[in-house]
Amino acid sequence: MSDYYLSILQGALLTVAVSLASLFVSTVLGLLGATAKLSGKKPLVWVSTLYTTVVRGIPELVLMLLIFYGAAIGINTFFESIGSDFTLDLNPFVAGVGTLGFIYGAYMTETFRGAILSIPRGQMEAAWAFGMGSTQTFVRITLPQMVRYALPGFTNNWLVLIKATALVSLIGLHDMTYLAKQASAATREPFIFLLFAAALYLVFTSISLWALKRLNARYSLGTEKVQL
Length: 228
Prior knowledge:
Layout: H1 2-38, H2 42-56, H3 60-81, H4 92-117, H5 121-129, H6 134-164, H7 176-187, H8 190-219
Protein name: ABC transporter permease
Family: Belongs to the binding-protein-dependent transport system permease family. HisMQ subfamily.
Transmembrane segments: 12-32, 44-70, 90-107, 158-179, 191-212
């Protein structure tokens, strides 16, 4: 029995890796999407709006299966049609991270867009009047203030993303959910091992809430405190 618990703990490390990698991808896509939506350029606004609308309207599991199976089949069919011997074997870790990052990038886009809109525009105009460029204004004026407004939504997205990593077990990635199901099938005691995996998820989310509350307190100095 102890071997099963140890394997689930090892799978938990993979779950953390998938979560953090997906968070990085989703944050980058969220910043790009929010910038595109607020750019005022119609093509960028249209593409970013289409992205957030479509992704938020399709279940995560459907998108993951589409990317893992459909993308590989489509790419291989394309290369076969042009006479190439190239075949794509999509890695489950890459597929899981890419899919989760792509999905939650849409949610992060709306979170960051709302946070940026909460900052008085006069502050950015003052920065431009002092000769700051767009990049310098974003890094020195917008980003520090955006963090405080974005943290509540960012926290919710992160907590949901952690729980959504359980979906990668369906594409063959040996995370802790996959290993808990394997242990349950081998011992015919599903309650014990699935409850252990659930407890690990609760530990991860509790640590995340603690860390993000401290971060929120750091960026809320001098302002009214906001409960996450």
